[in-house]
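Bug: token stream looks shifted between consecutive jobs. Job 1:
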Amino acid sequence: MTTHTPEQPDDAALERLRAADPAAGLDPDTEALEAAVRTRVPEAFAGATATPGAPASPPADTGVPSGAPVDELAERRARRRRRAPLQVAAAVAGVLVVGAGGYALGAGAVGASPAGDTSELTARAPIQLGTADAPAAADGAGAESFAGDARSAADVAYPGYWGGRTVFHQDGLPTEGASASAWAYDAAGVFAPETLLRVADALGVDGEVREDYGSLSAGSADWTGPTVSLQPDGLASVSFNDPTKDPWGCVVVSPAPADGDGGGESVEPGVCEEADHGAPPSGADAVEQLRDVLATLGLDPAGYEVVADEQAPDVEAPRATTVTAHEVVDGQRTGTQWSATFSGAGLASLYGALAPRVEIGTYDVVSPAEAVERLGDPRFGGGGMIAWARESTLEQMAVEPEEPTVPPTLGEGARFAWPVTDVTITDARLGLAVQYQPDGAAVLLPAYELSDAEGNAWSVVAVVDEQLDFAPAG
């Protein structure tokens, strides 16, 4: 048993979703994933172990004359069966990634580094509560809502995925409570036209401030030039885009010249010519550039762990470099961040949380043992499983699907299946999690990450009942 104490373009909703995505722009390390899957699920690669570039083996003798009619339906079924292990392997790879560190893509554990060296990453992964979905995200505008629903479902169904239930116990965890600091994000203090003008000036955006469906915007109104917006959400999210530096943007040439004589015009629509912005900055340079941008916006770069995406090895001439600055408090990423994309022409896009974090006091927290009890308390059911690592889970997922069959009819007097899984929590980490109040205000409050001996993890709020308001929302 061990315990640990802590020492966000024109569619604003879409951009808030992108800004909240902890894995935005990150590419999985496919070689590492494949190696892990080969180790755990070798049968998934059976018959597919030939060395790349080596001549293919001759086809096996199936016993069917080459001129015999082919049963196309049977062949399609066979192809499905042959594909299944790799499809399952892909799902297992995702579990391996998550089990390795909360959500490894968002934590920078796979395919990302500050300057090409993942050994420099020191902050622990953020704790995410299932209740972290902001009210503004009810229409799909926030990534937390999606993740929260998925975690809640996993908690109810773990580990049989559908129809199972879980009972939690603890083994050797402390029974004494403690205290921890909490913070509020002061969006109300910065959501103002003056703030947007300051941000616009820092990012080189001209124009007057205008209101767009509650948000504040400045810059090009037709999206042909740089634009920046400030959202009225709990994090005062900023969204910046410069289409003139977009690494994937293009200019439509219309009408296109006709083939042949070069004089007339073609009736075909024009082609889209992509702009050549040159090579984007290296990961290390992009990291420093984002640090400079944060400082220009009045933020302290030292309060962030800045991570550059690792370029895919098969991309000879990448068009962009994406960098993420993760907010860090007491050695842990909070889950709020800034994400920037640089092309050869400079900063093409930027999304992030501008609201400053203000301390709101010290709160009493329940003991790790009581936190485990909360996993079975309906009042805290919005939390849930956040990482899989159980070997049996991998084995269940790795089973090749069989042809569907009709289930047997239940007999008279038979007992009804009501699967229940018993989980013993052996490890507790007290950290912090972003949580949204019913009115949309964002706070950073104490939360536990609870793990079993095999590395599966759940999360739950840590603040004592007396300091929680259980009144119904609305």
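Job 2, same session, no restart:
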Amino acid sequence: MLPTRRCLVGLPVVRFSDLGIESSLVSCLADQGITEPFEVQIEAIPSAMEGRDICCRAPTGSGKTLAFGLPLISRIGPAKPKKPTALILTPTRELAEQIRNVLDPLAWESKMNVLSVYGGTSYGKQLKGLEKGVEILVACPGRLLDLLKRKALSLEDVSIVVLDEADRMADMGFMEPVCEIIDHCISEPQMILFSATLDHEVSKLRKSYQNDPVRIEIGPKEISMDSMEHLFWNIKPYKKTEIAVKSVRRAGRSIIFCRTRSGVDRLSDEMKLDNIPLSSLHGGLNQKQRDRAMRKFSSGRSMVLVATDVAARGIDVEGINCVVHYDPPDDAKAYKHRSGRTARAGSSGVVISLVKRNEQRSYNRIQREVGIRKRFTDPRPEVLKKNEFNLVPSYENKEGRINTKKKRNRRGRSKNSKRNKFTKGTNENRNKNFRGKEKRRRGRRSKKKADDRP
């Protein structure tokens, strides 16, 4: 049986400095308003700082990124070109970018570089970053294997490997690529594994690649369905959008899940006609569009995220009051993952399922498997708790607001663009240019008159 670290219950308040984190990183965290570690950080950081392998079960949103990121930054050395010293593997592009955004300011404080690599984007920027040398590489398995085959990098200097959302990688069929990537690490690196569940596939990974790991378990083994209110509303198909609009207007910050990309696009278009500030997210968007949608939603510039299941795991956005199953989830596991976006960290939340008549049987099965028993009722969005949502403006105007859009001149170029700066010149140069042009025009007119003579 694996050793399990005992929870530090009843002890005085723990600070990051008590866990062995250096003062410069502690100050950087304090500047971000982070002064006290979460439970998973208190449990994982000391063992990680000692160089121990870690097998940790913890839910999304529990503070895992700093739990592995702080020891990683503290322990690794400088990198050579194309030879990162730490590797973080994630199942999705959104999660990779989220981890990079968290670690980047901390790594910068320690004079280190962080690079994220994933599919759906050009190779150019990623190849240049690897050429310069990065200490911390955050990667999705598919793109990393592609770069390894191109000999764009080597993993021989990697001293720490982190597997984040390992169960999700197993669900997506990434276990074989993950094993192939770990085998590219010539030395035996410290292996830190985080997962929401420690099921059969994750257990095989632990047995194959970890050496006497410290086992840490945070929170319930499964997403608790008791912390949220579940509503199952019978609905006619043509009423679904109307009820969804009324529900999110009452609930405030919400996520609506659709089954298909076209369903997301169609619902988004319909809700925009009702002036609902929203973002759309699905696998058919390119990476820039997906990043823009997540930034817009997480920063409060949109109230609703309409998404496929691509957003159901690994994305940590605070303050979600409501989850709407616009289309039914595939199974009980998907229902849990979708619903788990709300009622987090002790807060309350509501989960609404819009149920057509032919979907009642599948929802009955889902209820049995997740351990809840709710009646199917008529929709009543007016009884939902009214949550205020203050939309963050995308730009600000002269009344104390700053417009983020560049001012354009008559030709459509920014007034501060390099092209305008270099072509404009001083008044003296402009006068010289004008006189030169006038002379050339006179010369052409004289020549034309001469050619017209008989």
